[in-house]
Amino acid sequence: MNFFDWMSMNMIIDIAFIVFSGALIWKIRKLEKQNLDLYKKIGFHKNAIVEMHENFQVLEKDILIVAKNPQAARKTFKDRIGALKDKEVS
Predict the structure, then answer these.
(1) Are 72 and 65 in contact (CB under 8 A)?
(2) What is the 8-class DSSP label of residue 2?
(3) Rounded-to-integer distance, Cα 23 and Cα 26, Å
(4) Region 49-77: what's the mean pLDDT?
(5) Dihedral over Cα of 20, 25, 30, 35: its sign
(6) pLDDT on residue 87
(7) What share of the chain is helix, strand, coil (3-state, %, to 5)?
(8) Residue 31: which H helix or E strand, with range?
(9) CA end-to-end span of the chain, whole Å?
(10) How much is the pLDDT for 25?
(11) Is the Cβ–Cβ distance between 74 and 62 less than 8 Å?
(12) pLDDT digits (tens, 9 = 90+) for 17-55
């Protein structure tokens, strides 16, 4: 094997390494972008679950009020309706 054959083979290996490295970097960046999108979706779902939990706590509290004192529940309901009307007006 002479010097020129050795240099030719070396150049092929270098070019293959550069192409492989470029493809690997492109794929890693693509996966990182997908992970970022997934983290955003997880954040949205987490916020929705927290909101549902808060609504559940309010409903549970309302059920206890109705069970203990229906008149107080009616007053609370009217107060909430009034607050919603005031909120819509402003």
Answers:
(1) yes
(2) -
(3) 5
(4) 88
(5) positive
(6) 80
(7) 95, 0, 5
(8) helix 3-68
(9) 88
(10) 95
(11) no
(12) 999 999 999 999 999 998 888 888 888 888 889 999 999
66, 86, 90: which is closest to 76 by C-alpha?
66
The pLDDT confidence band at residue 1, using thresholds 50, 70 and 90, is low
DSSP 48: H
In the block, residue with structure tokens 């030719």: 8
Residue that has been written with the tokens 């999108």 in this structure: 37
Question: Phi first, then psi: what are they for 61, rounded to 5°?
Answer: -65, -40
Confirm if 27 and 34 have CB atoms less than 8 A apart.
no
Q: What is the DSSP letter of 90?
A: -
23: tokens are: 């493809």
Q: What is the mean pLDDT of the chain?
A: 86
| Token pair listed for 88 | 């819509």
62, 76 Cβ separation under 8 angstroms: yes
